[in-house]
């Protein structure tokens, strides 16, 4: 965990140093749904301005802020047009923290999303 904080700090500095160019956007494309432990589709979208960011290696780490469910780590598969997803089986409804790490050719994007996951 300490290491990933360090990496994201480095990343922020590098991105700031690049100047020009908008920051990458990481948005939820399909929100996770609670299906009593069965998998439901989860998708995010990576973009920079109008351009989808393709060919990234993306992982999503799910944790619960107020309870210890450990870390659920998913490798997201690219679906095209900057969309990456995986079936995700959350063990309970509630507020989940989703840490997105994307990497391509040494460029990393690290974003923390939250999702209020409800039954589907
Ligand atoms: Cu919980």
TrEMBL record:
Protein name: FixH family protein
Keywords: Signal
Signal peptide residue numbers: 1-24
YtkA-like domain: residues covered: 23-100
PROSITE patterns xref list: PROKAR_LIPOPROTEIN
Stored InterPro entries: YtkA-like_dom (IPR032693)
Superkingdom, taxonomy of origin: Bacteria
């Amino acid at each position: 965990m300490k290491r990933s904080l360090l990496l994201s700090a480095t990343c922020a500095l590098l991105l700031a140093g690049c100047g020009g160019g908008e920051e990458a956007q990481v948005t939820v494309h399909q929100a996770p749904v609670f299906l009593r432990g069965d998998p439901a589709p989860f998708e995010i979208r990576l973009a920079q301005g109008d351009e989808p960011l393709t060919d990234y290696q993306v992982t999503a780490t799910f944790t619960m802020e107020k309870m210890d469910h450990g870390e659920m780590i998913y490798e997201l598969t690219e679906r095209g047009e900057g969309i990456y997803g995986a079936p995700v089986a959350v063990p309970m409804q509630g507020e989940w923290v989703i840490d997105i790490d994307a990497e391509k050719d040494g460029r990393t994007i690290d974003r923390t999303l939250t999702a209020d996951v409800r039954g589907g």
